[in-house]
Amino acid sequence: SANTFIARLGEGQALLGLWQALANPYTAEICAGAGYDWLLFDGEHAPNTSQTLLAQLQAVAPYDVEPIARVPVGEPVAIKQYLDIGFATLLVPMVDSAAQAEAVVAASRFPPLGVRGVASATSRASGFGARADYLARAHERVALIAQIESRAGLDAIDAIAAVEGIDALFIGPADLAASLGHLGQPGHPEVQDAVAHALARITAAGKPAGIFALSPEDARAKIADGFAFVSVGTDIGLLAKGSTALLEQAKG
Ligand code: 3PY
What we know:
Blueprint: H1 4-9, E1 15-20, H2 25-32, E2 38-42, H3 50-60, E3 66-70, H4 76-84, E4 89-92, H5 98-107, H6 134-141, E5 143-148, H7 151-155, H8 157-161, E6 168-171, H9 173-179, H10 189-204, E7 209-212, H11 216-225, E8 229-234, H12 235-251
Parallel strand pairs: 1-2, 1-8, 2-3, 3-4, 4-5, 5-6, 6-7, 7-8
The structure holds 3-hydroxypyruvic acid.
């Protein structure tokens, strides 16, 4: 694939990522130097705007890390804006049907392949006009990851995974737990059974599966289970946990 994240997934080793919810270029830069394979910039739940996402993308550009952005919703406006500022890999929340997945793919491609609005020389993605073949080849660089995180998404998982242009699927355990009647209990056996079922279906479709791990132990287990990319924690979690632990240690 011309998309570097998908190409790296194809190399066979699980790719470990860190969730960025602080919406801050300074902390993104720190995390980019830590050695994670990918960072997820969250436009769904974190206080991000196009400007803060752009600043984070610029901050991590010098590092050997794959930036992925989660759009707030799988609609054309968000998708074109995120692609225009230079994200090539998008995580799309709440994909519940093949029709939704197809609409997301269409939103990421210029006509005649899709319905993405055209910005060329004014977009960072085009190198500000420097890439002569940008419009014709932009779709080759794009990767779309559909989030499966509801009962409806689980029911439609085979059809979603079969959609051309959906390059990978990602399980959101928190929302999946909520949808299955276990709000706040992503580790509940019924939720984890659903996760195992989803992994099997995604693998059967020949696509890479990703997941948000609940702990470092869970991350190792999910890698062993066959997940191709695993989020192992969040910037907020590191700061919250580390600052509390430091104070406790200092107090003795
Ligand atoms: C979920 O767990 O629901 C996610 O979307 C990942 O944080």
